[in-house]
Design goal:
The complex is a heterodimer of chains A (115) and B (113). Chain A is mainly beta and 115 residues long. Chain A is 0% helix and 54% strand. In chain A, strands 2, 4, 5, 6, 9, 10 and 11 form a seven-stranded mixed β-sheet that branches. In chain A, a hairpin with a 6-residue loop joins strand 5 (42-49) and strand 6 (56-57). The radius of gyration of chain A is 13 Å and the shape is globular. The termini of chain A are far apart. Chain B has 113 residues and is an all-beta fold. In chain B, 0% of the residues lie in helices and 54% in strands. Chain B has strands at residues 4-7, 10-14, 19-25, 32-38, 45-51, 56-59, 62-67, 72-77, 86-92, 102-103, 107-112. In chain B, strands 2, 4, 5, 9, 10 and 11 form a six-stranded mixed β-sheet that branches. Chain B is globular. Chain B starts with a strand and ends with a strand. Classes of the chains: A mainly beta (115), B mainly beta (113). Chain A binds chain B through residues 4, 31, 33, 35, 40-45, 48, 50, 56, 58-59, 90, 94, 96-104, 106-109, and chain B through 1, 4, 6, 9, 31-32, 34, 36, 42-46, 49, 51, 89, 93-95, 97-106.
């Protein structure tokens, strides 16, 4: 079986700081995703990528950038951290792009706190 | 775009009884409805899913029902056990959105011993 590795596990930033979260998968999946998890709001899609160098905006893309450097890695950048922001960022991958019935495999998450 | 509403947000049931979580969606073209379970400190994992050509699916103690006319689907956990305590997320997707899953808000299920 494969694994999705997110780094770092915990990230503490300062207001206005640019912060980068990294994700690696060894499933050889085509599609990768970044979701944000907030209490009471479920999982909201920030960016996704259906293949290397592809980038698609989700519903929550404002304030974020993403980069699919290679098939196995997908990074997310918080362009300017907001004071008192706290959230969990979940990376996921799935086998095929463009199909509506794929299982998502999630990483363990990066927990962000902004002071 | 598609919206998925999930209720309740918090659910507490006695061990051994049943738990039910309900979701509704807006886009009638949605054709895939998975359920993910997230245990404390863990990542979400797929536990069961249903496609639009089915009305009912069961895997052991998990039952999902789909009512396409009402645009509702639900998860029922029969004979709940302490290990069922977790966050549960429903989701929907369809050909309109390139396979993106739209998640509900989540239900925190607690099983009382």
């Amino acid at each position: 079986g494969g694994i999705i590795t997110q780094t770092p596990k915990f990230l503490i930033g300062q207001e206005g700081q640019k912060l980068t979260l990294k994700c690696q998968q060894n499933f050889n999946h085509d599609t990768m995703y970044w979701y944000r998890q907030d209490s009471g709001k479920g999982l909201r899609l920030i960016y996704y990528s259906i293949t290397e160098n592809d980038l698609q905006k989700g519903d929550l893309s404002e304030g974020y950038d993403a980069s699919r450097e290679k098939k196995s890695s997908f990074s997310l950048t918080v362009t300017s951290a907001q004071k008192n922001e706290m959230a969990v960022f979940l990376c996921a991958s799935s086998i095929l792009g463009g199909s509506s019935q794929n299982t998502l495999y999630f990483g363990a998450g990066t927990r962000l706190s902004v002071l | 775009g598609e919206q998925v509403e999930q209720l309740p947000s918090i659910l507490r049931v006695q061990e051994g009884s049943s738990a039910s979580i309900n979701c509704s969606y807006e886009d009638s073209a949605s054709n895939y409805f998975p359920w993910y379970k997230q245990e404390p400190g863990e990542n979400p994992k797929l536990i069961i899913d249903i496609r639009s050509n089915m009305e009912r699916k069961q895997i052991q103690e998990l039952i999902v029902l789909l009512d396409k006319k009402a645009k509702r689907f639900s998860l029922h956990i029969t004979d709940t056990q302490p290990g069922d305590s977790a966050m549960y997320f429903c989701a929907a997707s369809g050909p309109y959105n390139q396979g993106k899953l739209i998640f509900g808000q989540g239900t925190k299920l607690s099983i009382k011993p």
